[in-house]
Amino acid sequence: MIDLRSDTVTRPTPAMREAMYTAEVGDDVYGEDPTVNRLEERAAEVMGKQAALFLPTGTMGNTIAIKLHTQHGQEVICESRCHILNYELSMMAWFAGCVARPIATRDGILTWETIRPEIRPLGPHAAPTGLIEVEQTNNLSGGTVYGLDVLRGIAEGAAALGLPVHMDGARVFHAATYLGVPVREIAQYADTVMFCLSKGLGAPAGSMLAGSRQQMDSGRLLRKRLGGGMRQAGILASAGLIALEQMPLRLQEDHDNARSIGESLAAIEGITVIPVQTNIVIFDIAGTGMTSHDLSAELRARAIIANSFGPTSIRMVTHYDVTAAQCMEAVDAVREIVSKKATGYAAQ
Fewest CB atoms less than 10 Å from the CB: which of 76, 125, 293, 323? Predict the structure, then answer.
């Protein structure tokens, strides 16, 4: 099976499995798991922050960050296709008591110029702005990347108004690879950063939230409230350490594979591809006369899995467990299916 649904489907590497088997553990709720402690220290160092917190999921990390920065009844400015608004079960409302102020953009990238007019001051009518959130990379826009100048503009504008910035950096290491900079150069423009160990970096589970030490101390209590006290979590943290140290070094391979998929699909009549920057390929097949459901079903019959992203859109995500040859096999299958469909129309 060639699984291009997401980079969350990877299996632990042999090195991760060995590390998990031999992991030194303790009770993390008591702060006594040495492997978790090492992972948190290293994550903070890599991100250029004072401290970090190990979490079971990225959704929990974003939920905690929003709660740390806001008060009930405030708004969170975010891009209209962002993960916290579309894929996290309204946790900013359910847990933090906030509502989203979404801004639609062409490419999933907010700028200070688009943000500034949407900021609400404290007053008798509008809910005040409590937080600005950016998603690096933007998943639903095709893995698009915030440039450093754009992030700097947002950070400086927000600071001038006393507003915090949170970065949903689920795939921030992909952004660092694309920009060719250390990840801390991206993270410096946000007060808190969440990143996933299990997206792209290949760990079996886990995410990190990084920020100030005071924020992470408060975040640890919020993690407990959300059921995130994991006890002997060093078994997972050991794989997370390998994901953090080794797996970013190979992300360019995923980018190259994604670009190859995008370029090859764009050459098929009736298919339009969103420009590929990182490891996500989103393409529209409306011009082929097929629906995404139909194409996905045909692909699955050929042992290839890809997610529908709308009535005529499909997403393919490259990762550690798919090779360049398998990526081209998937493209060949799409070409064959579309050609067969076109031949059927001609026969009619």
Answer: 125
